[in-house]
Amino acid sequence: MTTLPQMVTMGQCYYNETISFFYNNSGKELSSHWRPKDVVVVALGLTVSVLVLLTNLLVIAAIASNRRFHQPIYYLLGNLAAADLFAGVAYLFLMFHTGPRTARLSLEGWFLRQGLLDTSLTASVATLLAIAVERHRSVMAVQLHSRLPRGRVVMLIVGVWVAALGLGLLPAHSWHCLCALDSCSRMAPLLSRSYLAVWALSSLLVFLLMVAVYTRIFFYVRRRVQRMAEHVSCHPRYRETTLNLVKTVVIILGAFVVCWTPGQVVLLLDGLGCKSCNVLAVEKYLLLLAEANSLVNAVVYSCRDAEMRRTFRRLLCCLCLRRSTHESASYTPSTRTGPSTRIMLPENGHPLMDSTL
């Protein structure tokens, strides 16, 4: 078995021990058979993972296919979809290597499983903050999203992934407890409690920064619209704009709070070594809730965009038309007049579609 990178340490290291050894050390049960709870978690996890993959693939396809989305702010939305797509893959990998299969993992396999999750979820959270920062800058500068500097947005994306890869790779190389068993966490028995505490505090800090940024945006926009309303008779429009802004801020922050805060609090409690806290009773469900945020992000940040919804309908209708054409070609071969069946388009060049979809 390939050994992990060796550390210079005063104490004894346990690089050749099994996963069971570390789980027993932390007091976390390692089941040898599929329990009803394991089956429920895996069934829910697979369902959420598939939905996350399909939804974020649709977002990426929409951004790639519509030239109107080839703008810096949509680069960030595309990066968010890519990070959430990666999170779906990571969680899918977890579902196929959990329950009784955990005991059969090597140390490298366990760190790979954990690293994929940490990297993808960190990239998703960091991109949410980057989007908030860019929205704040464009609003304060009264600047269209299309005029945002591409170079800075690209650097933001690079910074997001550097930070995510750093946090994801550190545990396997140094920030583990293989040489300090007394510092092992209960939720992740191979990781140091300090790593969990730092990860949880970083995510909570991101949330506080997002609250500050969106609160500043809200009050700034409200003041500007209020000043406009004083000069023009547009009070109904003012109320509508304010309500829409409140709705957007509440949805963005509310989704983050619901999906992320419970898990971060439990991680922090485990990282701080709370012995009386029964963190193991809820950890799997809270991780599932955090993963569900990768599905919620697609709805909050992309599906609320009218142009994005139109692009979704166009892509889905194209898929339906292709499928129906393929079925028609398969079941009624006598109607074919050549090597391929063509879809008739109206004069404007766009396929017919049902606007109610």
UniProtKB/TrEMBL annotation:
Topological type in the membrane = Multi-pass membrane protein
Cell compartments where the protein resides: Cell membrane
- Keywords (A to Z) from UniProt: Cell membrane, G-protein coupled receptor, Glycoprotein, Membrane, Receptor, Transducer, Transmembrane, Transmembrane helix
Q: Which residues form the signal peptide?
A: none
Cellular component per GO?
A: cell surface; endocytic vesicle; glutamatergic synapse; presynaptic active zone membrane
A molecular-function term among this protein's GO annotations: lysophosphatidic acid receptor activity
Region Disordered, residue ranges: 329-357
Q: Which residues form the G-protein coupled receptors family 1 profile domain?
A: 55-301
Predominant localisation class = membrane
Polar residues composition bias: residue spans: 329-340
* GO biological process terms, semicolon-separated: positive regulation of MAPK cascade; positive regulation of Rho protein signal transduction
Q: Which residues form a coiled coil?
A: none
Q: Which domain of life is it from?
A: Eukaryota
**Where would you find the membrane-spanning parts of this chain?**
39-61, 73-96, 116-133, 153-176, 196-221, 242-265
Under InterPro entries, the record lists: GPCR_Rhodpsn (IPR000276), GPCR_Rhodpsn_7TM (IPR017452), LPA_rcpt (IPR004065), LPA_rcpt_EDG4 (IPR004066)
What PROSITE patterns does the database record attribute to this sequence?
G_PROTEIN_RECEP_F1_1, G_PROTEIN_RECEP_F1_2
Q: Belongs to which family? A: Belongs to the G-protein coupled receptor 1 family.
How is the quaternary structure described?
Interacts with RALA and GRK2. Interacts with GNAQ and GNA13. Interacts with CD14; the interaction is enhanced by exposure to bacterial lipopolysaccharide (LPS).
Name of protein = Lysophosphatidic acid receptor 1
Gene symbol here is LPAR2
